[in-house]
Amino acid sequence: MITPAHPPIAITGIGLVTPAGIGREATWERVCSGIPTAARDPALTGLPVDLACRVPDFEPARHLPGVTVRHLDRYSQFALLAAREAVADAGLDPATWDGDRTAVVIGSAAGGVATLEHQHSRLLELGPALVSPLTMPMFLPNMAAGYLAIDLNAHGPVVHTSTACASGATAIAAAADLLRTGACDVVVSGGADAMITPLCAAAFHRLGALSRRTDDPASASRPFDADRDGFVLAEGAGVLVLEREADARRRAAAPYALLVGHGASSDAHHLVRPDRSGAGITRALLTALADADVRSEEVDHVNAHGTGTPLNDITEARVLARVLGQRGAVTSTKGVTGHLMGAAGAVEAALTALTLSHQLIPPTANLHRLQPGIAVDIVARHARSTRLRFAVSTSLGFGGHNAALVLRAA
């Protein structure tokens, strides 16, 4: 085997704000329990689909002391809370680290879309004089990364990525490249979105993307199940602290896992439908494995994109079977969390790192009858304790974006 030309990247800090809980431990415990979070959402009352997975008990003023929270859209609030947890978890202090060598890369599919919807309503109802002067700094998708840089004293590269639902994974891959090239020594990277809004819910419903199981919300998000009918809209953030492994070891930090490869591709096929051949996903996965210098038969686990939509799940499962065979035990944590949009890839990368750290694979919630034609080992009903060395996290997005991350147990 050829030795990779780049050093492994250590994941030394994890911060999570998800429908499964506020904080890394709360999210991990709920995801491993396999208990779904979907429920009827009062903010969506009157819409054809009023299901969502909300972050529970989130109080911005309490959770973000010292921050003027009214100046931040909800997605930025999530990102900031997750980033603070990740940095503290890594044992780093923004007051003392070298800010010039610290970067921020955050992905988001929509940025502050709730702010935009609200301020557009004010424009129509009250006139331009009552539109908030903070509209643009709250709405612009890059602003979460900008706020994090200010809060964390990060003066290195600050980047926003947007590849729809692959945005968080794309951000982590970009962060790894910054470390590989020596552009910085620490990167705070992940994804955030808060798209549980009437406009987003109505638009996704019109596309036919959302589950319509309003009579039984808890069972609505059902990846790989024969009776799946769409995803459940969710919100939240996942943020990782990434360092070169040698730097992390030098300061006696204990990584959760190592990021050893990544790959990306485009279907170049359709704006919202995946290419049924799976050629694009296959390219991203094979590129990531080659980048990591890992053989397909060495992959022990896959945290799949697994949205619960009819087209995604069968296409992705066929790719995994073709590339990995029965070797990798597959799960989709969206059965519990719903679909966090641009944050999904980052949250799922964090959960993959935790899976390797705990040597425990969370179950795919609501999987009662496997879709015929799916020939991979799907973990269902209960978390599975097993020996794990290499794992893959896959992310797909509207526009044909595909991303894959390869992690190794530390």
Automatic annotation (TrEMBL):
Entry keyword annotation includes DNA repair: no
Q: Which residues form the Ketosynthase family 3 (KS3) domain?
A: 6-409
Cite the entry's keywords alphabetically. Answer: Acyltransferase, Transferase
User: Superkingdom of the source?
Assistant: Bacteria
Q: Name one Pfam family in it.
A: ketoacyl-synt
- By its UniProt entry, which SMART domains does this protein fall under? PKS_KS
Presence of the UniProt keyword Acyltransferase in the record: yes
Signal sequence interval, chain numbering: none
Indicate the family of this protein.
Belongs to the thiolase-like superfamily. Beta-ketoacyl-ACP synthases family.
Q: What is this protein called?
A: Beta-ketoacyl-[acyl-carrier-protein] synthase family protein
From which source organism is this entry?
Answer: Kitasatospora putterlickiae
